[in-house]
From TrEMBL, chain A:
Residues 27-377 form the Leucine-binding protein domain. Keywords: Amino-acid transport, Signal, Transport. It comes from the Bacteria. This is Branched-chain amino acid ABC transporter substrate-binding protein. Belongs to the leucine-binding protein family. Pfam families: Peripla_BP_6. Transmembrane segments: none annotated. The keyword Transport applies. The keyword Transport applies. Residues 1-24 form the signal peptide.
From TrEMBL, chain B:
InterPro entries: ABC_transp_permease, LivM-like. The chain crosses the membrane at residues 22-39, 51-70, 76-93, 105-125, 131-154, 181-199, 230-254, 266-291, 303-328, 349-371, 391-408. It is a multi-pass membrane protein. This is Branched-chain amino acid ABC transporter permease. Keywords: Cell membrane, Membrane, Transmembrane, Transmembrane helix.
From TrEMBL, chain C:
It holds the Pfam family BPD_transp_2. It is a multi-pass membrane protein. It is found in: Cell membrane. This is Branched-chain amino acid ABC transporter permease. Keywords: Amino-acid transport, Cell membrane, Membrane, Transmembrane, Transmembrane helix, Transport. The lineage of its organism: Bacteria, Pseudomonadati, Pseudomonadota, Alphaproteobacteria, Rhodobacterales. CDD domains: TM_PBP1_LivH_like (cd06582). Belongs to the binding-protein-dependent transport system permease family. LivHM subfamily. The keyword Membrane applies. The chain crosses the membrane at residues 12-37, 49-73, 94-112, 139-159, 185-211, 217-238, 245-268, 288-307. The keyword Transmembrane helix applies.
Length: 413, 435, 318
């Protein structure tokens, strides 16, 4: 990796300044996510988590391959597919072999497609795509490829866990599904319908609604319909301001039951819901920090909060990305031949930092891990948004959906 | 730019081009040919590709705004739809192994852009001004909203991917490498720019200017303002579609963001930044904007703030944009007096730049102190690393800001005076000029 | 039936909120002849200022002070920005407000960050005033409805019954003559701009707790406000009111309806295809009215512009 990088134009020139400033031996990980614009909070939060994990869990413990450090480079994709592809190109030119991305399945689709093409066309500078948060099931099913690994539980797995909880709750007989009108929102609704029908067909789906993403100003009419339908619980895949708008409207309209969500925490959401969300907002995800599984986790969170007071451990899986990548590189004995690293990562079983085990399934590169259903509560140890509220585990589903079928037909090089 | 002497002649006779008109095009072609030799890395080529696509798009937008006086808030739609059609065509070619080589693909993008523009233009160009602007906004919002609803065509949120390499090899190239794509895009950029330039010199192009400036008078001369606007609109749609086709080839994916109103807003910004009054203005705007976006977004998290400020400053102080500022110097240059301005410029603009840099440094400092991790007090600005929590950098930044702006204000009257003198035929260079 | 009643109330609430924004915008339009793209940005500023003030002095002081600050800021923009750009013509003016909207959003992000602000309604109004069926109507919304009605009545009174209002109305139509009569027309313009933006500020203060206070709030509402005044007829206060209420009810009822386009397709004699993945119309078959509710106003606007370019109540061309 000693080749001098000949970069052109101002942009690339500016890049070369930062590229030469660091040690050439570092294993570079390009973080491609929004660092400016409306979704910047999630992006900057994720970058902080990545950098912290690389520093604490790899570099401070001697690095990989006997002394090589990890370096996470943040590239701003402005939540735009085109910009992400430019970032990918810039990263590859800088000698990056690992890219991580998570916000928006749409961009993940664009990236996995581009990475696949790039690796086929340029066998000498291949890259791995470590997806830490894009949960569209298609990425590990019909659209899967050898270079893509997903560390988050996908939308189907999460819904599987969520519906397990719902069918065990006898108070829930009517469920209302509402989501944003795009691939992920539709995937959530379809999964909920399928799982509920299969597990307990006495649970009635009283509404299945999609609304335009980011365009609704006032969610009250939707909330009215939910209340009028007599639903006992609401399931939604909404995120960002759509989540807050919907949640607030539902609670204000007098809805008393639980609201099951995917992304209703952190980035100001927990704080905005505040007291009204306590006991109402439920969230399904991997990695729960209340209660934490070990003192090591407590220490890690405390150190993170001390360094980044404005950020939260909102995406626990990031730690697993860094740890498993380090293990795979050590096992493969190389950081540049990513085909070997990918082979090492395939089927890898490791200790999940947040408790339990995590396995990277061979057939489709989907991580199998414990999935939790959590609830917004006051007075937990690790709070979010610098508020007095946080998420507390209600139910833990061990090795969720380990036997879930996949349609992936992986082509291996 | 508009050469009034030839205006009447062009109605019947093909325009005759002088050496001075051909030269820039030849230089541009040679420049584009050698550029990749100087900057050969893939990322540089990617950025240059983006720049050229933006140039075509911005030029097509200026057919509306600059030449036709029509303010559109939904121009991205034509580029996006053209691109989406190209993408589908690409997939159809791949599936059926049709004998269509990749380089002709943008034509189809253009035709689809033209088709959509013909439909929309048939009712939106009846009026100019606010009616046109609002219809363009409405149509833009509608089609952008459709992009997530009509998944069969737009591919929903994942967008529509494709693969350019399955095409019939074109003289042995399969467009596997970025550099091959570069030359393809360069060819289309020059061709489209040339065609748009020629369009601006046809009778229709000339009448578009007339209708922009004084629709009543144009009507009295026997031209239908509406038809003139309609033709400009269709032309703009066609070239936006070509830009969309190039986009499809370069990125091999189109997503809903291609159609969004944000995209339409950005192209307005680019065109205005470059200058709407001159043909080459949007080219400057596209180059400057792409560079700014790539450089600034790597250097600063608040680059959009700078962009907004720059845009506002352009509207307020240089409504002619970059091209306007450049062309302001033509009279002085003709009289061989550009040299007079060097001194006063140095004395005003240099301090002003320092002042602006100081202000930016203050913003960056403030941002860093507020948003950086605890204990992470090191920050790098202008290639200097320092501690943002110590007092010194703040003092330096404040001094630079205040001092720079003060010095610039001191130099301004002198500059104005010299400027006036340099542009007045027969005026003498005074002793105070640059002595 | 309960749902219809509650939708009427919700639509009224949303319509009146739109009206608080569009009334200011339409006044400004009659004055300058240019749409102020940054109008919704002043709405956002209102919410953020009020949030900041409410942290120290409580909600009510925020409601009082924030619109004032926004109004002063608006007047400043007119005095130092727009008046300068005015000489270049209408298009640069429009572009100026467009750039201003961009800049204000970035400034808000710079100072407050990207996160949602936990801006809450006052405790005293945090209860359900009454219920229609199972649906509760929060007291805060009722308070908002009455506040906006009060503002409308006040505005109408000032414009039509007071001397200041007469001068404003005259200045809008015949600025030269009014100037010749010894009135300071630029000051009138600045004042109207300030009041218009202050109204947007009030809307922001009131809507912030309900609709959320975040950097995208201006963008979300921005273009819909234009749509409102274009539909109502530019420059017409009554038109703005009618269009606001129309859009309020339109979006509310569209969102709560359960109309499916499949019914429409069936009505036209088409049958649902067996294999949906092959059908080009598969998206239409699964489309519902709530899905496209928020884009209905745009369709309405385009139709109105095509068939009646002066809007519902307008007298002159857009």
């Amino acid at each position: 990796m000693k080749r001098t990088i000949k970069l052109g134009l101002g942009a690339a020139l500016a890049l070369s300044v930062s590229a030469t400033a660091v040690l050439a031996e570092n294993v570079k990980i390009a973080f491609i996510d929004p660092l400016s614009g409306p979704f910047a909070t999630t992006g900057t939060n994720g970058l902080a988590e990545f950098q912290f994990a690389a520093e604490e869990l790899v570099n401070k413990k001697g690095g990989v391959l006997g002394g090589t450090n990890f370096e996470v480079i943040g590239l701003d994709n402005k939540m735009d597919g085109k910009e992400s592809l430019i970032n990918l190109q810039v990263a590859i030119d800088q000698g990056v072999h690992y890219i991580v991305q998570g916000n928006s399945s749409g961009i993940a689709h664009a990236l996995t497609e581009a990475v696949n093409k790039h690796n086929r066309r340029n066998p000498d500078s291949q890259v791995l795509f470590l997806n830490y948060s894009a949960v569209d099931p298609a990425l590990t099913n019909e659209k899967c490829n050898f270079w893509h690994f997903r560390f988050d539980a996908n939308a189907d797995i999460k819904m599987d866990a969520l519906t397990d909880v719902i069918v065990q709750n006898d108070a829930i007989n009517k469920v209302y599904l509402i989501g944003q009108d795009y691939s992920f929102g539709k995937a959530v609704a379809a999964a909920a319908e399928r799982d509920l029908g299969a597990k307990k067909n006495t649970v009635e789906i009283v509404g299945n609604e999609l609304h335009p993403i980011g365009k609704v100003k006032d969610f009250t009419p939707y909330a009215r319909k939910i209340v009028a339908s007599g639903a006992d619980a609401v399931i939604t895949g909404n995120w960002g301001s759509d989540m807050v708008g919907l949640g607030k409207a539902i609670i204000e309209a007098g809805f008393k039951g639980p609201i099951y969500t995917y992304y209703a925490a952190s980035n100001g959401i927990t704080r905005t819901f505040g007291e009204a969300g306590a006991g109402t907002i439920n969230l399904v995800g991997e990695g729960s920090i209340n209660p934490s599984s070990s003192p090591e986790v407590d220490e890690y969170i405390a150190a993170f909060e001390a360094k980044y007071p404005d950020h939260d451990i909102a995406q626990p899986r990031i730690v697993n990305v860094i740890r498993m990548l380090a293990m795979a590189i050590d096992e493969a004995g190389t950081a540049t031949d990513v085909a070997k690293v990918a082979s090492a990562l395939e089927g890898m079983e490791a200790d999940n930092f947040w408790g339990g085990k995590i396995k990277m399934r061979e057939q489709d590169h989907q991580a199998i891990q414990d999935v939790y259903v959590m609830q917004q509560t006051a007075g937990v140890k690790h709070t979010l948004d610098n508020s007095e509220f946080g998420l507390e585990t209600v139910v833990k589903v061990e090795n969720a959906s380990a036997d879930m079928p996949t349609t992936c037909e992986m082509e291996r090089p | 730019m508009t050469d009034t002497y030839q205006k009447t002649a062009t109605v019947t006779k093909a325009p005759v081009f002088s050496m001075a008109q051909v030269a820039p095009w030849v230089i541009a072609v040679i420049f584009l040919m050698v550029l990749p030799i100087a900057f050969g890395s893939n990322s540089a080529i990617t950025i240059m590709n983006q720049m050229m696509i933006t140039i075509v798009f911005a030029l097509s937008y200026n057919m509306l705004l600059g030449q036709g006086g029509m303010l559109s808030f939904g121009h991205a739609v034509y580029m996006g739809v053209g691109g989406f059609f190209c993408m589908h065509l690409m997939n159809i070619v791949e599936a059926n192994e049709l004998p269509i080589p990749l380089p002709v693909l943008p034509i189809f993008g253009g035709l689809f852009g033209l088709g959509l523009a013909t439909i929309v233009g048939s009712f939106s160009t009846r009026k100019a001004g606010t009616v046109f602007a609002m219809i363009s906004l409405g149509i833009g919002e509608l089609i952008a909203a459709c992009s997530v609803i009509i998944v069969a065509f737009f591919g929903g949120e994942e967008g529509m991917p494709g693969d350019r390499t399955y095409f019939l090899p074109f003289f042995g190239t399969e467009f596997l490498r970025q550099i091959e794509v570069y030359y393809l895009i360069a060819f289309w950029t020059v061709l489209s720019a040339l065609l748009m330039y020629l369009f601006s010199r046809t009778p229709v192009g000339r009448m578009a200017n007339a209708v922009r400036d004084n629709p009543e008078r144009a009507e009295f001369l026997g031209y239908s303002a509406r038809w003139v606007r309609f033709f400009s609109f269709c032309g703009a749609g066609f070239f936006a579609g070509i830009a969309g086709g190039l986009f499809a080839i370069n990125y091999e994916i189109l997503t809903e963001t291609n159609l969004s109103t944000t995209q339409s807003g950005i192209i307005l910004l680019i065109t205005f930044l470059g200058g709407v009054g001159f043909f080459f203005g949007p080219i400057l705007g596209a180059i400057a904007f792409t560079l700014l976006q790539s450089v600034l977004s790597l250097q600063s998290e608040i680059w959009q703030l700078y962009l907004g400020a720059l845009f506002l400053a352009t509207v307020m102080f240089f409504p002619g944009g970059l091209a306007g500022v450049l062309m302001m110097h033509v009279p002085a240059a003709r009289m061989g007096r550009l040299g007079w301005l060097v001194g006063p410029y140095l004395r005003t603009i240099l301090p002003a730049l320092i002042g602006i840099a100081g202000l930016a440094a203050l913003m960056e400092l403030l941002f860093h102190v507020r948003h950086s991790a605890t204990g992470d007090t090191d920050m790098t600005l202008f290639w200097v690393t320092f501690d943002s929590h110590s007092i010194l950098p703040w003092i330096v930044a404040i001094v630079a800001t205040v001092g720079g702006i003060w010095l610039a204000r001191q130099g301004a009257p002198k500059l104005r005076e010299t400027w006036h003198r340099a542009n007045t035929p027969g005026a003498a260079k005074t002793t105070g000029g640059a002595a | 039936m309960d749902l219809v009643v509650i939708n009427l109330i919700d639509g009224l609430f949303y319509g009146l909120l739109l009206f608080m924004l569009s009334s200011g915008l339409t006044l400004i339009f009659s004055m300058m002849g240019v749409l102020n793209f940054a109008h919704a940005s002043f709405y956002m500023l209102g919410a953020y200022f009020a949030y900041q003030i409410s942290m120290y002095l409580g909600f009510w002081m925020g409601l009082l002070i924030a619109p004032l600050i926004v109004g002063i800021a608006g007047a400043g923009v007119e005095r130092y920005g727009l008046r300068r750009v005015h000489q270049y013509g209408h298009v640069p003016e429009l572009i100026f407000t467009f750039g201003l909207a961009l800049l204000i959003e970035e400034l808000v992000k710079f100072f407050w960050g990207n996160n949602l602000m936990a801006y809450q309604e006052p405790e005293i109004l945090k209860f359900a005033l009454f219920s229609v069926g199972a649906n509760a109507v929060p007291a805060y919304k009722v308070f908002m409805i009455f506040t906006s009605i009060a503002i409308f009545v006040g505005l109408l009174y000032v414009l039509t019954r007071t001397r200041v209002g007469m001068i404003i109305q005259a200045a809008l139509s015949y600025p030269r003559t009014v100037e010749a009569l010894g009135h300071n027309v630029p000051l009138v313009f600045m004042g109207v701009f300030g009041v218009g933006t202050a109204l947007a500020g009030v809307a922001g203060v009131l809507a912030g707790p309900v609709l959320g206070t975040f950097p995208g709030m201006a963008f979300v509402l921005g273009s819909i406000v234009f749509v409102t005044i274009v539909i109502g007829g530019l420059g017409s206060l009554w038109g703005a009111l009618a269009a606001s209420l129309l859009l309020g009810w339109l979006t509310t009822f569209a969102a709560s309806s359960s109309f499916q386009f499949a019914d429409l397709l069936n009505f036209f004699g088409m049958t649902r295809p067996e294999d949906m993945s092959e059908s080009y119309l598969r998206d239409l078959w699964s489309l519902t009215l709530p899905q496209i509710g928020p884009i209905l106003p745009y369709i309405l606007m385009v139709l109105i512009l095509v068939f009646r370019p002066y809007g519902l109540f307008g007298k002159r061309d857009v």
